[in-house]
Structure formats: C-alpha cells, structure tokens
C-alpha cells in the first residue's frame, strides 16, 4: 500500500484527500491516513529534499524550504534554455535529413541558419558528422543528448514526417543552380537590311 500511495502522490498536481487515496488503493481510510503520516515522518527523519504534507484537506509532495534556491535556479535556467521556433525548425530538418550540410538546411528552410546551427551545437543537440565527399561541405547530425531530451531510443522513433520535406535531389539541383554564374546575354542579332528589288534595265531596241 505504501508503494502505491507514493506512486500516486508522485504524479498528482493537486493535494489528494485521504478518501480519494483510499479508493485508489482499495484500503480503509484509517489505514491510509496512518500510512501517510508514517511516510511523512520517515521523509523528515531521513532528511530528504522533499516532504509529504497535508494541506487544505489533501496530501501532496512538496520541496523543502532549504532547497528552494536550487529549485528556483533550475526552473529559471530551464526557461532561459528553451529553444526558439527557428531553432526547433532547424533541429527538425537536421533530425530528418541527417547527415546534412548547413547549405542544405538553409535551402530547405529558405533562410540563413548559421546562427541557429551554432546555438544547436552549443546546446549539444547537433554535432559535426564528417564532410560531403563531393562538395567537401561539413555535415551535421543530431547527438545522443538530442535523443535523451526527446525521450527516444533511436532515430527510428521519429514520427513519419520525412516525406513532407523536400527531396535531397531537388535540393541539390537548387544549390547547383544557385552556384552557377549568370548566363551571359547574347548580343541581339543585327537586323538584316532587306535587299532592294532589282530594277528592270532599259529595254534595248532591236
């Protein structure tokens, strides 16, 4: 019963009354109340970073006041570390098209991604993955940390989204077209002077 109570309290966002917990574990309210009191005392005795308190008619886990500064710093750092929409879009392209060069990512997104790529590399979400054999451009891929943050075991767990992204052959053609110098305009052909009709010569008298 104690394990069940701990598990339920771990996932709740609001204080839970004893009656609600008793129904969840299928035990009398008296037994549940006694177990909650015992757990609360044990957490305090062991010096845990959290405690179990009854507030407002319900039981819930709370962080201890002495750990408040650490919790606050962690929460604030997490808010500041959130990626921008541009970074998320760029990361998605890298994830689905890796290994991929910056030029290809820029071509897919239609904007320069140099700054965003530097941010993703600094965050440990993207890393270098060698170079392209033809263009010698640096290639990039997602990291193991990316998988951890996304809660995935491997890239095979990515949702089926790749078919909606441009094909690499199309991107190659676009990049090749962008790298070609503009074709020189051919000089306009000179207008030909129309030949004057031949005039009949004077009639000769026999």
From TrEMBL:
One of its GO terms (biological process) is cell division. Residues 187-206 have a biased composition (Acidic residues). It comes from the Bacteria. Residues 161-206 are annotated as: Disordered. Residues 176-186 have a biased composition (Low complexity). Keywords: Cell cycle, Cell division, Chromosome partition, Cytoplasm. Pfam families: SMC_ScpB. The keyword Cell cycle applies. InterPro entries: ScpB_csome_segregation (IPR005234), WH-like_DNA-bd_sf (IPR036388), WH_DNA-bd_sf (IPR036390). This is SMC-Scp complex subunit ScpB. The gene is scpB.
């Amino acid at each position: 019963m104690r394990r069940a109570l701990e598990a339920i309290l771990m996932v709740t966002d609001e204080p839970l009354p004893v009656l609600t917990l008793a129904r969840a574990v299928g035990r009398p309210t008296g037994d549940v109340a006694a177990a909650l009191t015992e757990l609360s005392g044990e957490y305090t005795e062991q010096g845990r970073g959290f405690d179990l308190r009854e507030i407002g008619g319900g039981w819930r886990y709370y962080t201890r006041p002495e750990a408040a500064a650490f919790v606050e710093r962690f929460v604030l750092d997490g808010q500041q570390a959130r990626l921008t929409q541009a970074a998320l879009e760029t990361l998605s392209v890298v994830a689905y098209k890796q290994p991929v060069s910056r030029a290809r990512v820029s071509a897919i997104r239609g904007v320069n991604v140099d700054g965003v790529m530097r941010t993703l590399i600094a965050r440990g979400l993207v890393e270098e993955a060698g170079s392209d054999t033809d263009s010698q451009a640096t290639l990039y891929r997602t990291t193991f940390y990316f998988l951890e943050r996304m809660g995935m075991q491997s890239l095979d767990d990515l949702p089926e989204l790749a078919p909606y992204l441009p094909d690499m052959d199309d991107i190659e053609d676009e990049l090749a077209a962008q790298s070609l110098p503009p074709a020189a305009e051919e000089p306009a052909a000179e207008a030909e002077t129309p030949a004057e009709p031949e005039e009949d010569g004077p009639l000769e008298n026999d």
